[in-house]
Amino acid sequence: MSVRSLFDMTGRVALLSGAGRGIGAASALALAEAGADIAVLARSGDQIETVADQARAMGRRAIAIPTDANDAEAVEAAVSRTLNELGRLDVVVGVVGGSMPQPFMNTSDRDLRNAFENNVVNGLRLVRTCVPHLVSASEGRTGGSSVVMVSSAIGHVVGRGYVAYGSAKAALDHAVHLMAADLNPKIRVNAVAPGAILTEALEVVAADPVLKKTIEDATPLRRLGRPDDIAAAVLYLASDASSYVTGQVLPVDGGVLTTNFNFPIPDL
Question: Is 165 a catalytic residue?
Fold first, then answer.
């Protein structure tokens, strides 16, 4: 078997949440390019339809399902529709998350709950809903089915202003370890931990030459990441190329050892 063939996703179905733009959209299209049929979920119907159209142009089956990740019934309906229309489910990619940086003393109980809801609860709910179908698809396949969560470098490095977001991502990282232990050997569970990636969320920072240079200078590879950098890692973890990998959090961060961006907050 050639190494290249290990990345072939032909005949498999991948469901991706948060797939309307940025890392989610790039990951969906990477999986489609590798041969997978895809179901793309997000609240933004127009955006996910555009992603689905691009996958269809590659000759793939693709469905766009407007879904609010906070709505458990909507998530269950989206998974059911994927099974009904695409016939199986081999890969789940959880991209939904986020939280605005702010000083710790301005971080309320609600902010903390929202961060954990968006970054941990919603992702684990999606995985839990998909597990029975991933188990079915794993039969007879070396490496089984695959779950890939999108975490963040801030889950394991320190930066000012990220108490809510970083704590939630650290919890997600450990949840990946624990889910892998529970779901072995039929389902592999891994995560990608991006650093500073040039998505819409970072455009304001990237538009400021001083801030952009600050981040680049603090990154060993001296550049911002691109969504395709993360999509390539997602493809690796979703495919048979990583069939001997589970319970891992893969940093894709340009070599970050400490945070490359501190939210500007005043000293106490």
Answer: yes
